[in-house]
Design brief:
single chain; mainly alpha; DUF4290
């Protein structure tokens, strides 16, 4: 079967339509097949060009031998096997792969910010992200000195990890920290309620 998603019954209908001699009867049969195919996928009715795709599928299932008046320009047999154009991947060099390219872009943007509260908050967010990325790749604890060295290197000395930024980092972590629910306490409370 060229398109198994429609099943054997639809393929049998298409095969039958190929045997019909009368052109108007064959056209009516093709319209009925399209309606049945459309009913199989009602969630796709709002998709643009849904009917067009159904007619393309009918042509494919008939081996492009169904002689009817198609309401759309159908796909050509030669276009079925064309390969898509290759996608070129960006060749971006990163200093540290565990931080990724996006973080390096953020650091460059932070260097352009004017001095002030917004820049300090951005640097604190970047440093927290650096810690998270470092720990995800290295599975070790990370010392703030290592983050400070990497931040200094990636920003060409323009950004420094100061005590003020370390305090902001801790504040940001506390704001976003959600304590895990204590499983045992919840279980004990639920058991007490039952009795």
């Amino acid at each position: 079967m060229p398109l198994p998603e429609y099943g054997r019954s639809i393929q049998n209908m298409v095969d039958y339509a190929l045997t019909i001699q009368d052109r108007s009867e064959r056209q009516r049969c093709a319209n009925t097949i399209i309606n049945i195919m459309g009913n199989m996928f009602p969630h796709l009715r709002d998709v643009p060009d849904f009917k067009h795709k159904l007619w393309d599928h009918l042509a494919i299932m008939s081996g492009f031998e169904l002689d009817i008046d198609y309401p759309y320009e159908i796909i050509h047999k030669d276009n079925l096997v064309t390969k898509p154009e290759p996608i070129s991947y960006p060749n971006v060099r990163m200093h540290y792969r565990h931080y990724g390219h996006t973080l390096e872009v953020l650091i460059k943007k932070a260097c352009e910010f004017p001095e002030g509260n917004e820049k300090r908050n951005l640097v604190a967010m970047i440093c927290n992200h650096m810690k998270k990325d470092y720990m995800a790749w290295n599975k070790d604890t990370v010392d703030e000195r290592k983050i400070a060295e990497d931040l200094n290197e990636l920003s060409d000395g323009k950004l420094q990890l100061t005590d003020d930024i370390i305090r902001l980092m801790a504040e940001r972590l506390n704001q976003n920290y959600r304590p895990k629910a204590n499983y045992n306490n919840n279980r004990n409370n639920n058991q007490r309620r039952r009795y």
